[in-house]
Design brief:
Structural class: alpha+beta
Distance between the termini: 87 Å
Radius of gyration: 31 Å
Order of helices and strands: EHEEHEH
Number of helices: 3
Shape: elongated
Helix content: 25-40%
Length: about 130
């Protein structure tokens, strides 16, 4: 999607126009993500650019597109340019642990030795006092 939206509509209030633009962007993203992935890719990455016009558009993550549209509208612009291109991507590689996990022996970690507690005074070996 490479489109310039008008932020002014005489038949609608300005906040409703901005919400309609954001709704169109979300619908487009959902539609793109439903498409079958190319061979060898795990997910769709949405590369986005937003600005008052195409020449001034800046790259942003998809999560920030709605905020960027709000910023352009708050700046008093008459139009907002939105560009979203879906590109196949792979999941990032997982980080492998190189060190051993911590020991489950809590006493060894602090360096203290476990000691046996002597029986209470007055108690004999048979448990009578």
């Amino acid at each position: 999607m490479k489109k310039t939206f008008s932020l002014k509509d005489p038949a609608k209030a300005d906040p409703r126009v901005v919400e309609a633009i954001k709704n169109d962007v979300r619908k487009y993203a959902k539609r793109e993500r439903r498409k079958p992935l190319p061979e060898g890719f795990d997910l769709w990455e949405l590369q986005c650019r937003v600005g008052p016009e195409a020449a001034l558009a800046e790259g942003r993550p998809f999560k920030e597109v709605a905020a960027a549209i709000d910023a352009v509208a708050a700046g008093g612009g008459a139009t907002v340019y939105v560009e979203i291109v879906a590109v196949g991507a792979k999941w990032p590689a997982r980080i492998q642990r190189t060190e051993d996990p911590p020991s489950s022996d809590f006493g060894a970690a602090s360096g203290s030795q476990a000691t046996e507690v002597p029986p209470a005074s007055g108690a004999g070996e048979d448990g009578t006092g």
